[in-house]
Amino acid sequence: MNQKIQEAYDKRPKDWVYNTVTAFIVVGLLIWSGSAVETSGSTQDGGQIALNVLSGIFHPDLGFLFDFTKSGVPYLMLETVCIAFLGTIVGAIISVPLAFVSASNLTPKPIAFAGRMIIMAARTIPAFVYGLMFIRVTGPGAFAGLLTMGVCSIGMISKMYIEAIEDLDTHVIESLDASGCNTWQKIRYGILPQLMPNFASTAIYRFDINLRDATILGMVGAGGFGAPLIFAMNSYRWNEAGALLAGLIVLILIIEYISTKIRVKLTRG
């Protein structure tokens, strides 16, 4: 047996030459493509600016970091959380009827197709563009950010809701129907218990995404961290920028920890 194994091992395909040649070709292509990278937009002091930003994070302006007025970091943190949270709530509420209408196992195919087209159209426009649009409608501020987060959340949440609805266990509904339950009882005891964990987990996950997007939206005047951060960096106030970034890092870590615990609880029961 050992001799047969050794003979089979000796007769194995010797493809090391092929692998070596392929590796050289890949490395050559990477080197060739790297030669086309343009660096004309970079500046000589770019590395120093990066070091200044890092220095600001480790040496933040403590007066600004613990300033509890409307211009301080704690208020901006609270505003960012509120924008992300309320935007997620708005998007999740609107997504529920839209998902039920777009689910192919509950509605006729033409209606489901029309609903999916609406969801797809909502997902095609980036959050940054939505922010610019709503700022023109409502003016700069947190309300524009809330509306932006709500509309941007519809696309993803609706898609995840549709998948949860289409994965429903229809045998439970059929058994309730055979027991003589009315429509409300079938929804209450057959549909909602299956959907609520998935719906809640999706909404929490979207809240994590919105919390990060809310910071970017602030750069166009939609409230939150963004505008003060870009102003501090443009004015070379690195300690203030570091205080904002430190607050943002702490905020995201706290929200990430809490949301992970909730999602695990929902998943495992």
Describe the structure.
With 269 residues, the protein is mainly alpha-helical. It has a single domain (61-268), classed as Orthogonal Bundle (MetI-like fold), CATH 1.10.3720.10. The chain contains twelve helices and no strands. The longest helix is centred in the C-terminal third of the chain and has 35 residues, at 183-217. The mean pLDDT is 80.
In short:
The protein is mainly alpha-helical and 269 residues long.
Q: Can you give keywords for this protein?
A:
mainly alpha; MetI-like fold; single chain; 269 residues; 12 helices; flat
List the helices and strands and how they pair.
Elements lengths: L1 H9 L5 H19 L11 H13 L3 H4 L7 H30 L6 H16 L2 H12 L3 H25 L3 H9 L4 H35 L8 H9 L3 H31 L1
H/E element order: HHHHHHHHHHHH
Q: Kindly identify the CATH topology.
A: MetI-like fold
SS elements, strand count: 0
Measured by DSSP, the beta-strand proportion falls in: under 5%
Summarize the amount of helix as a percent range.
over 70%
What's the CATH first level?
Mainly Alpha
> How would you state the average pLDDT, rounded?
80
Taking pLDDT < 50 over at least 5 consecutive residues as the criterion, the unreliable ranges are none
Kindly report how far apart the N and C termini lie: 52 Å
Total helices: the number is 12
Which quaternary structure do these chains form? single chain
Overall SS class: mainly alpha
